[in-house]
Amino acid sequence: MKRNNKPRMSDPPFDDDHGKRNKDYELRACTWNVRSLNWEGAAAQLVDVLVKIKAVMSVQEMRWTGQGQRQVGPCDIYYSGHIKERKFGVGFVVGERLRRRLLSFTAVNERLATIRIKARFFNISLICAHAPTEEKDDVTKDAFYECLERTYERCPRHDVKIVLGDFNARGGKEGIFGTTVGKFSLHDETSPNGLRLIDFAGARNMVICSTRFQHKKIHQATWLSPDRKTTNQIDHVVIDGRHVSSVLDVRGLRGPNIDSNHYIVAAKIRTRLCAAKNARQQTQGRFDVEKLQSQQTAECFSTRLALLLSESTHQQLGIRELWDGISNSLRTAATETIGFRKVQKNSWYVEECRVAAERKQAAYHATLRSTTTRAGWDRFRELKREAKHICRQKKKEAEMREYEELDKLADRGTTPAP
């Protein structure tokens, strides 16, 4: 018998495209249970991860209250949380590439949310889901899947529909579920929550893609137990059956870290996004009116404005034309003399915070090695506490500076610019 001495092939990096395909024709959709974004620097670190992997990400257990949108760095975070309590909460993180292609965001409840993305041939509807755990009663589980069904039915008929999130469901290898489940699951037996997910997918001709691709077990696992001995595959990506051939790969990414015991599940989907909204729209900034407190700047602004007004109002014009001339003169004079304000989001998240986060990330990567020891995990926990302490301290210092600035403005009898 002839032995094969060829080295075993390893899984290629998720960013490896083998030079066969332009990345502009791919959508990278990820899901991540972050456990919590309710601590200093969490949102900024999440955005840093998204910028590196260049994807649209669905997020579970954000623990933010209410519904809305926040801009953090170059990304927009859309969230749907509980009205009062900081529990559960789902949402999406959208980068610069897809910001102008986003058609809508719909917040359903603290366990479900949807977005629509403009594409060339079929628009894409993404549903972020966070299912109850196995310990919950059947009433809670039935209510979740009924709401998920209604959310799915509200999506436009011809859209590519993708449901992704933390389903707390283990799929098995029984082979009786046909094409709904792939044959490369991490588990041998299907859990009760897995049966619910399979029933939902099978009734709508959908496919659980996270079990269709063969990878190492470390890239199949999506959850790690606190004792670091047990792994489960409970986060999934589900897509319409007629578009399942567009899914090129689904795998777990262990490298990114945000102090969660879940790994990112990343799907690479072949599609052509619409280029109509690719151009970045010009937005009107806010003028830096604080510069007018300088007498020299105020005189320059007044002189320039008087000159522009004299040029635009020397003719007999109607009321609308007169107002347009005054408005344009004000805008031009302000642009030339005082300029626009530089808006800073999370200005307290300075380089020291990023360095602490990078040290923590390096210690986390060291724990992923098979030779890691208890000392390695202790080092990671120590750096994690240090990073949180630095972020908390910098945020507090920034808030104190803002309070002092407000007190100074109040003493002068002025109000800060909005």
Structural features, described:
Pfam families: Exo_endo_phos. This is Craniofacial development protein 2-like. InterPro entries: Endo/exonu/phosph_ase_sf, Endo/exonuclease/phosphatase, Swc5/CFDP1/2. The chain is α+β, with helices and mostly antiparallel strands. Helices cover about 35% and strands about 20% of the residues. The radius of gyration is 26 Å and the shape is globular. The protein starts with about 25 loop residues before the first strand and ends in a 6-residue tail after the last helix. The model is unreliable at about 5-10, about 15-20 and about 275-285 (pLDDT under 50).
Q: What percentage of the residues does DSSP assign to strands (E)? A: 15-25%
Q: Can you name the CATH architecture of the largest domain?
A: 4-Layer Sandwich
- Biggest sheet: strand arrangement: 3-4-5-2-1-15-14
Report how far apart the termini are: 79 Å
Helical residues, percent:
25-40%
Write down how many β-strands occur, each being a DSSP E stretch of 2 or more residues.
Answer: 15
SSE run: EHEEEEHEEEHEHEHEEEEEHHHH
Number of helices: 9
Shape: globular
CATH class of the largest domain: Alpha Beta
Number of domains: 3
Please state the structural category. alpha+beta
